[in-house]
Structures are given as structure tokens and as C-alpha cells.
Amino acid sequence: MPLRRLIQIITGALAAALVVSGCSGTGGTAPVTLGQAKRGGSAVVAEVNALSSFNPFSTNGNTDINSKVGYITHSGFYYVDDSARVVRNEKFGRYEKVSDEPLKVKYTVNEGVKWSDGEAIDAGDLLLAWAAGSGYFDDADPMTGLGTKYFSVASDTSGLATTVFPEMGADGRSITLEYAAPYADWEVAFDVGLPAHVVAAKSGLNDEEDLTELLTDAPRGDREKPVLNTALKAVSDFWNSGFDTTALPDDPAIYLSSGPYIVNDIVPGTSVRLVRNRDYVWGPEPHLDEITIRFTGAVQAAVEALRNGQADVISPQPSAGTEALFSGLESQGATVQRYSQSGYDHLDLNFSGPFAEENVRRAFLKTVPRQAIVDAIVGSLIPDAKPLDSHVFLPSQPKYQDTVKDNGSSEYSKVDIEGAKSLLAGSTPTVRILYNRDNPNRARAFTLIRDSAGLAGFQVVDGGLGNAEWARALGGGGHDAAILGWISTGVGVSRVPQIFRTAAGSNFNGFSDGDADKAMDQLAITTDLAKQDDLMAEIDKQVWESAYGLPLYQTTGTTAFNSRIAGVKSSPGPLGVWWSVWDWHAL
After folding, report:
1. Of the residues 52, 280, 526, 584, which has the fewest C-beta atoms closer than 10 A?
2. What's the pTM value of the predicted model, to 2 decimals?
């Protein structure tokens, strides 16, 4: 799973790095061996959101469900378990630090590892993943708008951006990355991505060899002298959007697998059917022959599906008033797992349009009824639940309490309609808010925000879109604010620059702060954990001072499964139950 996103968009709740919603467990486990459970059988899993892309590494494709499908149809050098531990997959290949000064890391894919069309996974695939994740060829200047950003990757590129052009191994299955400076997250900075031979063919090249030659010959991007590389632009354009779809493509090349499962069928907006990849032996091998993912949306629909036998596993986004539904399942013999996710919901304001003025941003934020939102959505799921007061830390992290005392969050601790009116000075700005209208929690938050902001004079327009469309609209210009969520793997610190660094892949609202950028540059090369916390606290304060937006609440997760399935274990990260899909087995 290449171009590791430390954070993903939560189309249900809180992306290398951030994604949408998940569930937690209680520690890492080794995969179940074939001697412990039988092979065969099937399962139906209910998910909140609908599939929209086979490229979860792109800005548009970086959603929870796309990442989950991507995870079980791709293999790589490592995975992250339910205790945020990096587990190396040496059946797939190996990576090793060659030197510290300069930092060099060599990646080698094992012989025999292949895509589901029979093509070997090789150095060309590694080179494409590096090209997409490094920003090496970009010459775009975010300040002037000149130049070209080629690959629209969701992950933070600041680490791989310091690498020189990779050294290709003579074996044809390896590359070596050399960093210009130490990089704190080097161990999770890189992995295999999309099939290079497919991207080559679909972008007008003869074969993967031509693509490798194109990347090798193309110069590093120079903002001072931007030059459009039309052949590279064709490659990146296909990489960015050529794998986007809500239906099963006619060409199987668009949905090739290198992982334990292969997509077999899609009913648009309804379900995805996957079957076991019988050639897959380069990672933990699955037991189930078939998995169907049903898109159920609201909690009630997921619970009803489990109760009626239409689903075996569910992980909906719980909210206030739904706890009784899960208690009812337990009384019927289902197993229910409850946990706090490593994610959060938030409101972000665009630094353009009506919110280009700081006073208008501050006025709007003063109207947001955060405690009322927490009461309506979190309710009794967490005792004495309170709004989240940090953009970078969660309450369970040691630095949280010290940080919130001095980061500026207290200015928005309570609704202040009169203070908002004073800042507006009689103006009545019209603002459009984007959110996932098919997600009940997002819809509830929007209604509360709209009604409260109206008391200060804001004219709030409903910009909600369906669950297959809203995420790709985040980077567009059709809205002034967005309600969304991020969820982190819990590994490394790249999640912070992924969101807040100027022109970063997941910086959707145009935030740019020179001091924050400098702190993030320092964060990337800092390995001391205490110093990392200090730098993130500094960044948090700068984000609050800019009236960037508001964190709303830490998301919670609930997973339930019936007695037909065993081996299901939740994770607090973006993959939820899917992180150990190979352990699932039928009873």
C-alpha cells in the first residue's frame, strides 16, 4: 500500500497518515495460522460510504472506503497493526537502512510477487510510487500560481521531496532512496503504489520501460524556471483520475490486485464483491473465499442488516441515542467492540471568499455550538464528553492538556453571538458549507452550525453532497467551509504537514503560514519524541491563531459481528476491522 497516508478523510468519522473512520482493539496480534482455522466461506460487511476510486493515494481518492478496498487488494513492505505497531511483511520484500549520513534506504521486492494479471511487481512500480509521492518533478509555485503540480497525492511529500533520483537495482526489483536530511518517518514513508505497466499503457506510452525512461530523463522541477513536461503530465493525469469509478470498469487493468483479495463485481452505490486472490502467497493468507461490502449509511440500517442476517460484520459511526441498538445486538449473541478512534471531526474554513478576512473567520467560529454538537453526536458514548481543543493532539496523548492551556482554543470555548456580531460590524456574509449529506452525524453538525451562525447574521447555504461525491469536492472552489473528519494510523508525525503545510496534498482550505511551515520542516527531521511534541504544540497554536477552523470532537467506534465469523479485531486507525482481514474465518 504505497504513498502511505498518515491521515485519511473520514466520510463517516476521523488521513501518511489520515482517512475516514475506524475501530479500535487492544494490542497487536499475529495472523491466525491455517492450522487454527479452516479455509473457505464468505462474509458480508456493512460500511458507511460508497466506493469512488481504485486509487486511494490521490487527493480525490483518499477516503475511508477506498483505502479499505485498496488495503485488501494491495500488498506491500509493511502494515500497521491495532496497537500502531509497524509490522514488516518480508514475504513481500524487505527494506533496510543502508546508511545514516546520508540517510539511504533500499527497497527490494521478492521474486515471484506479481499483479493479478501476472505482471511482476518490480523496480518500475517502485519508481512510479516514488515519483507520485515525492513531488520531485513539480515546479508549481503556490504563491504565484505558475508552474505544474503533476501528481495530486494525498500524503505529505516533504520527506520524499528531499530525496535525489532513486538508484535502480541491477536485479530489476529494487530501488534505493537517498534523503538530503534525516527524516523522522522514514520507516513508513514509502511503499508500492499503482501498477506502472497499466499507468504507462493508459497514458500513451508503449510499456513500463518507456515510463521508467521518461521518469529517468525528466529533470527535477524548478519553480524559478517552470517548464511543462507534456508526456509526464499525461502520466500524472491518468494517475490522478484514471482509477476513479463507482462501477466495475470494463478493463480489469483498472482494478488489478496484488493483495489477498480481487474485486469481482460492483453494484454502484450498493455493494462491492471481492474474491480470494488464489495466487497470493506474499503476505498473511486469508481464510475467507469471498467478502461482500454493502454500503448501508446510517447506524440503524447497519444494525438492522446484522440483526436480519444481511451482514456479518458492521462498523457504523455511532452517535447519541444509538447505544441501545448495539445493546440489543449483544442480547442476540453478537459480539460488540467499543473504542475511541485515533480521529476527529472538524470544521475548516477556506482562506478565500467571505473567509479571506480574519475577522469574518473569527466571527463565524464564535457562533459554532461545539458543546451542543458533542451532546447531539457523542452523547453518552463518552462520559462527560467535551469538544476537542487541539488540531494536532487527542485527549489521550500526554501533551494534550498542557497544549490546550495556551493554544488559543479558549476563545471559542463558548458560543458568543454578540462577539460575532461585533466583528461583522453589520455585514451578513453568505457562506456555503460542504459536508457528506448521507452521513447523519455530518448532517446533524451542519444543522446546528447553520442555525447558530444565522443568529449572528450569517446566511448559511447547504452545500451537502452525497457520499460518493463530497470528498472529491473538498479541493474545489464551490464551498467556503467544510465539515469532515481525519483519522490517523497513529504512526509518525507526517500527518501534521499533510494537512497544514502550504500547498500540501490534504490542505484543502488554502491555509499558509510561514512560521508553521518552518516548524513542520523541523518536525520532519526531529526524532526526539519530546521535541516533536513541542513542535506540534507550536504548530497547533499557530493554526488556532489563524482562525483556521475548529476541531469538534474525537470520534468513537463500534464494531459488531455475529456468531458466523471469528477473528475480527478492531483498530482505532483508518482501516478499522480490515487491518487483519486475513484472520477472519467462518465458523
Report:
1. 526
2. 0.86
